[in-house]
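Students often ask why we bother encoding 3D structure as a string. The short answer is that it lets us treat folding as translation between two languages. Here is a chain of 369 residues written in the first language.
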Amino acid sequence: MKPGESVASSRDVKLHALILAGGGGTRLWPLSRRSKPKQFLREFSGEPLITDTATRLHPVVPAARTWVVAGMSHEAGVREALPHLGAHLVREPMARNTAPAIALGVSAIFLEDPDAVVAVLPSDHHIGKPDRFRAVLAAAGQVAAERGMLVTLGIVPDRPATGYGYIEFGATLGRVLAAEAFDVKRFVEKPTAAKAVELLKSGNYLWNAGVFVFRARDLLEHLDKHLPELGKGLADWRAAAPDAREEIAFRVFEAAPSISFDYAVMEKADKVAVVPASDVDWDDIGSFRSLARVNPDDRGGSATAKDVVSIDAHGNLVHAPGKTVALVGVSDLIVVDTGDALIILPRARAEDVKQVVDELARRKRDDAL
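And here it is in the second language, the structure alphabet:
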């Protein structure tokens, strides 16, 4: 394809969605717990994040083509949030990071639809402009279907963030529906603050949102090439009788490496494209900083409480439902009270909440986790 040309649509691309719901959300403790991780939280829109993720895809991806891969301990929560799933809930036998989870989910989709084009999405993103997001996702599906490429969505950055990986894009592949696609030159690790400023200024980098689109059969071929043992195990899983698959999946996951999909597949593939997602109002709900960005108040912070009294206090994030909270002479704090747990820390150290979870685990405080 020459620059400026458009991808020709030879067929109507019917996207399937595979939602990843295996995260623990440790940086949102004590809101997020093992029994109710962040994908089930309602603090952001009133609905569980996983419900928002699925419903914002309609009508590009209807409920009948929506799938979820999740740990067995979260099956009840997923079914409550998405009661329509039926057999489209794929249970991963143990946590092995995103590569094995995606591989298992895509294997299940392939059995139902060998020609499927699959969009893989985290369950914990905020998208303020879903119409625009659907348009970008449809464009990515078109590129995957017509060119056989692995496609990722890249978020156009608006600040020098250090919490995301980056994608360097190269030559244009032309206009695709309502978006433009580009070759991917390389993936970049989460940068230092100075490096993030440099990447933002260059204009050639996008945030890696962890949203991938590809034909199911293409992904299975990449598994055979880059993770052959996992690929062989899941080929056996697909060939087995339905009542034998759970046992096979356990053996496959037990032997599988714990590795991310980015490392295992995307960074090694030779035909990778990116579709920039601009003006979608995106946020990765990964820490309390994102809560403040999604739900700001007029004092530069965020508040969820019965009443918050702020005297010479600015930029604080408060979550204490049903309580009156008074802040005097303090700024840029996070205060989260869930009744049985309370955490207070500077907003600048929001990423360090995971250290609390690690310490509680060291103390064997399973009741608090």
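Translate back mentally: The radius of gyration is 21 Å. Keep this in mind for the problem set.
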